[in-house]
Design a protein that fits this description.
elongated; single chain; about 85% helix; 2 helices
């Protein structure tokens, strides 16, 4: 595994671990309040993952654009 792949996998793991407390606490509050709709729990659980994927895609696209940028000196 390359160094870059190792770094990216570390960032992905950190994002996943960071989303667990947010989703878990939201699910606990909804469950305790009696408002635990399965659809809203699924959305709350999937939103952090979707955000991490979107940011990763944006960073990858920005990196490609920067590489392909032609500068004239």
């Amino acid at each position: 595994m390359s160094q870059r792949a190792t770094d990216v996998s570390g960032v992905m793991l950190a994002g996943g671990v960071a989303s667990l407390p947010v989703g878990g606490s939201l699910a606990l509050v909804l469950y305790a309040g009696g408002q635990a709709d399965p659809v809203s729990l699924a959305i709350a659980g999937g939103a952090p993952v979707a955000l991490v994927l979107a940011v990763g895609s944006l960073l990858r696209s920005a990196g490609r654009a920067r590489r392909d940028m032609h500068t004239e000196h």
